[in-house]
Every structure is written in structure tokens, then in C-alpha cells.
Write a structure and sequence with these properties.
This protein has 329 residues and is an alpha/beta fold. It has helices at residues 2-12, 36-42, 48-65, 77-81, 84-93, 104-113, 127-132, 146-168, 175-184, 192-199, 212-223, 232-243, 257-267, 293-299, 315-326; strands spanning 70-75, 99-101, 119-120, 135-138, 141-144, 203-204, 248-253, 272-279, 302-312. Helix 3 (48-65) crosses helix 15 (315-326) and helix 9 (175-184) packs across helix 10. It is globular.
Length: 329
């Protein structure tokens, strides 16, 4: 019996050898008041996703110190539905990113907001009742239908202008050229595409018809079957941007087609040198959306020795903190 007890005690209190050089886990000391820089720095030593957030800040700081690097920023449409629209516009206005990749919603919702804002609602608002009131819901954000009515007016004029140029110049616009011209129509300095067009920052949108823009194109093309958009030119453009870059960095907010589009382009150069993912998806089902940077390394989309991190969580909480820590310094 004594031997069994001793064996049990030895098993529970197994002797350990502390790994050398590991930082101590410690949270922020609010007794000393709030110093935002020290507060943000404390995330690195808090553990769990806070430490991954701290690592993301560190990686992007190092990315930004590179003298010749092309930074790809990808974001799903819900990022633009939210107040991250203004955060992304800040980065574009100040030329802190070089290439944008998003979805149709990531384009149109920015343009819609140049006319009328979206409204804060509730996640559990009854859908049938909202439908009766002509209100669309994205999470806890309300988008009244009149926003799309105004957008349709804008797009009808714009599509006519593009078709006239297509005919007069014998030119079929690529998707990125189409977005560039749309950004030139905007006069709102809070707009992402106002600044992207004025700074010549390319915006790639491989799923341009998957949203309200697609609805507008559907109606317009019914009356104007000769209207075209060239989607093939942009696969050449994004791949060339990656291939010809000295170094590349990836920042992804959310997931889906924009995530794969950026990573796949970087495969042509044997992978990106830096990568920061921010999303809440898991990879148990083999989805690209949930895949971690290590999977991208297996495809050569991220280089084998790249600095990478995936921060699990809501980008509306995480990304403003990263911008404050990595882009304001």
C-alpha cells in the first residue's frame, strides 16, 4: 500500500524542468493607472488569444520596418458593414497597405455608406418583422432598404458611363479598373475606395457579382447585353503583384474567397514572408476559411520560415487594437 501511495504521489508531483527563457504570464497592473502602450504590450504576456494578439502586433511592426515589402490586406464584406470600414480607410488614406482584396459586399457597402449610414440594431431582432419594415440585418447592424435604392440610382448612372466608355474606347474594363472608376465617383473622405482610387492602390474582387452590385449588373445587362467586365485580367494582376514583390506580407480580416485569393497569389513566389490571420473559423472540416498558416505553408502560399500567427476572435474587437499598436507607432 505504501508503495502504491508513493507511486501515486510521484506521478502527481512529477519533477519538472522549466523551459529556459520563457516569459512569465502576467496581466496588466491597473494600480499604476492606464498607460495605453504598456497596456497593449501586456497582451503578449496574458496568455491565450491575448498573447496571439500581442504577437500579431509584433509581426506587423516587423513587416512595416521592411524597406521594400508589398502588404496585402484582405477583408470580408462584414468588416465593411461594421465600423472597421473607417479603420481600413485610415490605412488606405495613409498608404500603409499596398493591395486590397475583398468581396462584392466589401465594395458596395462602403459606397452605400457614402450616402447614408448603417444603424446599430440587435442580433435577436425578429427577421419577419424586420422584413415587413424594409430593414435588412447583418448581425446586429440594420441596413434599411432605402440605402439600396439610393445605391441603385448611383450604379445605374455609373454602369451607363462605363458602357459608353466600353463602346467609345473599345475597352472592356477589368474588375479592379471598374472599382477604381467607381471610387473616383465618390466624394466622401471616409470611404476606402475614395482613397484607393486617388492613391492608385489596386482593389481586387474576384466575386464582384456576388452581392448588390451583381443585382444591379443583372438588371442593367438585361437591357444592355453588350456590357462586359473582364475578370481574367485581375488574376494576372494579383499574381504579378505577388511575383514581382521583393517581400510580401498578408493581413486577413475574416475569411472566405479573399483569404484564398491572396494566399494563392503568394504561392507563385514560394509564399509570403509575413502573415496575420484574424477570424473565428476552425479547420476541423478541412475548410480554407478555418485553415491556419501552417496549412498554407504546406502549399507554398506562406514561406516555410515566415513569421505568422492566427488570432481567433472577432476582428471588430481585435483589429483596432492591432492598428493602434502596429500602425500608429
Amino acid at each position: 500500500m505504501a508503495k502504491n501511495i508513493e507511486d501515486a504521489r510521484d506521478s502527481i508531483f512529477k519533477k519538472s524542468n522549466d523551459p529556459k527563457g520563457r516569459p512569465k504570464i502576467r496581466g496588466y497592473d491597473f494600480e499604476s493607472g492606464l498607460d495605453f502602450d504598456r497596456f497593449l504590450e501586456s497582451y503578449r504576456f496574458t496568455g491565450f488569444q491575448a498573447s496571439n494578439l500581442g504577437k500579431a502586433v509584433d509581426i506587423i511592426r516587423r513587416m512595416r520596418k521592411e524597406k521594400d515589402i508589398t502588404v496585402f490586406l484582405g477583408y470580408s464584406s462584414n468588416m465593411v458593414s461594421s465600423g472597421l470600414r473607417e479603420v481600413i480607410a485610415y490605412l488606405v488614406r495613409n498608404r500603409m497597405v499596398d493591395v486590397l482584396v475583398t468581396t462584392a459586399g466589401g465594395i458596395e457597402e462602403d459606397i452605400i455608406k457614402t450616402k447614408n449610414p448603417f444603424l446599430l440594431g440587435e442580433f435577436d431582432a425578429p427577421g419577419a418583422e424586420l422584413r415587413k419594415r424594409g430593414i435588412n440585418r447583418t448581425g446586429n447592424i440594420f441596413v434599411p432598404n432605402d440605402r439600396y435604392i439610393e445605391f441603385e440610382k448611383l450604379m445605374n448612372k455609373f454602369l451607363k458611363k462605363i458602357l459608353e466608355r466600353q463602346i467609345n474606347e473599345n475597352k472592356v474594363f477589368s474588375t479592379s479598373e471598374f472599382i477604381h472608376e467607381l471610387g473616383r465617383e465618390v466624394e466622401d473622405e471616409n470611404s476606402i475606395y475614395y482613397w484607393a482610387s486617388r492613391h492608385g492602390i489596386p482593389v481586387l474582387c474576384p466575386a464582384i457579382t456576388d452581392g448588390s452590385i451583381g443585382d444591379m449588373i443583372y438588371f442593367f445587362k438585361k437591357d444592355n447585353p453588350e456590357f462586359k467586365i473582364d475578370v481574367t485580367s485581375d488574376i494576372v494582376r494579383i499574381n504579378d503583384l505577388a511575383i514581382n514583390a521583393s517581400k510580401t506580407g498578408i493581413i486577413l480580416l475574416g475569411s472566405g474567397i479573399m483569404k484564398h485569393h491572396i494566399c494563392n497569389a503568394n504561392m507563385f513566389r514560394e509564399g509570403a514572408d509575413y502573415a496575420v490571420y484574424i477570424n473565428s473559423n476552425l479547420e476541423f472540416d478541412g475548410s480554407d476559411s478555418g485553415a491556419k498558416p501552417e496549412e498554407a505553408k504546406s502549399w507554398g502560399k506562406i514561406s516555410a520560415d515566415a513569421n505568422t500567427v492566427k488570432v481567433y476572435g472577432d476582428a471588430t474587437i481585435i483589429f483596432p487594437l492591432i492598428v493602434a499598436g502596429a500602425f500608429l507607432k
